[in-house]
């Protein structure tokens, strides 16, 4: 029980991190420009996820119950022949 509490405390402490801005270490460089692009992207551009990484969400709420379409893959389990 004591080890569980200690592990919980250590796990909670791992969430405490530095809230400083990201920067390159001395001597470090940004990655090369992507193929077809003459200018290297800035660090803030590299941190923004591309549009394809965050797809738009379509939320269709059902306002009334509807009958489900027949599912051709909804098959009964195979019978075991022993």
Polypeptide structure, described:
- This is Argininosuccinate lyase.
- Residues 27-82 are annotated as: Disordered.
- Residues 59-70 have a biased composition (Basic and acidic residues).
- Residues 41-51 have a biased composition (Low complexity).
- The protein contains two helices and no strands.
- It has 82 residues and is mostly helical.
Number of alpha- plus pi-helical segments: 2
How much β-strand is present in the residues? under 5%
Shape descriptor? extended
Beta-strand segment tally: 0
How far apart are the first and last residues' alpha carbons, in Å?
Answer: 48 Å
Following the backbone from N to C, one meets helices and strands in this order, namely HH
Mean pLDDT: 81
Give the helix level as a range of percent.
Answer: 10-25%
Poorly predicted ranges (pLDDT <50, ≥5 residues)?
none
Major sheet description: none
Q: What would you call the structural class?
A: mainly alpha
- The gyration radius over C-alpha positions equals 26 Å
Protein name: Argininosuccinate lyase
Organism: Novosphingobium rhizovicinum
Biased composition (Low complexity): 41-51
Region (Disordered): 27-82
How would you briefly describe this protein structure?
By secondary structure, this protein is mostly helical. The protein has two helices and no strands.
List keywords for this structure.
Argininosuccinate lyase, 22% helix, 82 residues, mainly alpha, single chain
């Amino acid at each position: 029980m004591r080890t569980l509490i200690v592990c919980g405390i250590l796990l909670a402490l791992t969430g405490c991190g530095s809230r400083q801005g990201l920067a390159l270490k001395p001597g470090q460089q940004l990655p090369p420009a992507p193929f077809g692009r003459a200018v290297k992207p800035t660090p803030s551009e590299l941190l923004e996820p591309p549009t394809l990484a965050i797809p738009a969400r379509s939320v269709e709420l059902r306002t009334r119950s509807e009958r489900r379409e027949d599912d051709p893959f909804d098959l009964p389990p195979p019978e075991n022949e022993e």
